[in-house]
Amino acid sequence: xYLSFRLRDALPLMAAIMLIIASFMLPPYGDGAGEGVAxxxxxxxxxxxxxxxxxxxxxxxxADGTLESGINLAVALRLRALxxxxxxxxxxxxxxxxxxxxxxxxxxxxxxxxxQRARLELINSTPGAVLISIHQNYYPDPRPSGSQVxxxxxxxxxxxxxxxxxxxxxxxxxxxxxxxxxxxxxxxLMREAECPAILVECGFISNAEELAKLTSGKYQTKLAxxxxxxxxxxxxxxDGMVV
Length: 243
Known about the structure:
By secondary structure, this protein is of the alpha/beta class. It is built from nine helices and six strands.
């Protein structure tokens, strides 16, 4: 099932995964390819991976009933596994399809508010945090497809978004003409996050052809590899340099 991804699943694919990541990496800054990766073992930053929705909130629903929340989690778990191979410290805002809501959160709206507040507390209390929030898009017309990355107003977010959007578009959606854009103010985590933060709409689950890719483990691994590559490049870029 596309919702399940354990370490035992990753081990037979490790060599292939490393090749995938390498194919997503642009030439490094500085003199050596090891400079960017070496920085992550020093604990200078923490990649916070946010699988959007979850628990009582399934997010968008495809025509066949596939929920956005499950795809978000599958991509997020792959991203965490790949990050571990590179020695990147990570935190996840949720690790399963279930969410432990506080007592008194009885309605869906109350559950969603409590969950978002808990995620924000984790994000803003983590020194050196960099947030990647993973989502899937939906549109009533089944024709739109392709990814798009949105960025928070916090410092560094636009640069990270530009790198991530460029990688996904170049490697996975070459016909995509969208560009990275500011997140709408109504998006709570993007509005309130104090660290560099992006929201990645990986694709449209309302498009049947794209849904088939988004529920494929192979494609999810490619998405995860592109996001890890974007993070590595962002962290290794000289201050102020826009990629």
